[in-house]
Design goal:
With 214 residues, the chain is mainly α. It contains seven helices and no strands.
Length: 214
């Protein structure tokens, strides 16, 4: 009975965090990386502002997916130590969620209309990774963060040079992803086979191409 209640509590907490991710305004636990930047959105032309907002919307979707992945992986592992590691990564990704949403608003843009869909799909993938065992789940985390790091570098290359605020946010996100990848590897994550890595890359491309506009 106690075990059933614990599971129910976990499921209710997971559902609550899912609703908070897709339906509420996140609050960061760390300072906004762009707070010290001098450049303002008003310094950008309309096309530059629209492009920066679209790129930040894609990044925001990535953070919605990260929340779902780590929630599912934490729910699926029997190891309290790994559950804590996933929760810690999710907290930093929650900061990213708040930062990207704030920057999108500053640029006059909007978040993706498909966020509930992105969350649900990523949660299902996270549960699948967890079912394959902790080492595979950690390997999936490491590969996810590696691809996220590359993705963010691509956005740094595409963001307008004058948009130092967005660049500061993306730069801090990228540094955090590197640490998450290293932590997952140190905890025992295995290298995923090439077909799995390619499938993850293809799924990410579909998501980013769609979220750029919707």
């Amino acid at each position: 009975m106690t075990r059933q209640l614990d599971l129910i509590d976990q499921l209710l907490a997971t559902a609550d965090r899912a609703l908070r991710t897709v339906a509420s305004t996140p609050v960061a636990s760390r300072p906004y990386p762009a707070a010290a930047q001098v450049a303002e959105a008003a310094d950008l032309g309309p096309e530059q502002r629209a492009e920066a907002a679209a790129l930040m919307r894609v990044n925001h979707v990535g953070e919605v997916c990260a929340q779902a992945l780590y929630e599912a992986q934490a729910l699926g592992t029997p190891d309290p130590r790994l559950r804590e590691a996933f929760a810690e990564a999710a907290q930093e990704e929650s900061d990213h969620l708040a930062w990207t949403e704030r920057r999108i608003a500053e640029l006059g843009g909007r978040t993706s209309l498909l966020n509930p869909l992105w969350y649900g799909g990523a949660f299902a993938i996270g549960l699948l990774a967890a079912r394959l065992g902790d080492r595979v789940s950690l390997g999936f985390m490491a590969e996810t963060e590696r691809q996220a790091q590359q993705h963010l570098q691509g956005h740094l290359d595409r963001l307008p040079a004058a948009d130092t605020e967005s660049r500061a946010v993306v730069g801090q996100m990228q540094a955090d992803e590197v640490r998450h990848r290293q932590a997952a590897t140190q905890l025992g994550g295995v290298d995923l086979p090439l077909p799995a890595r390619l499938a993850m890359r293809l799924a990410a491309r579909v998501m980013t191409a769609t979220a750029h506009y919707v």
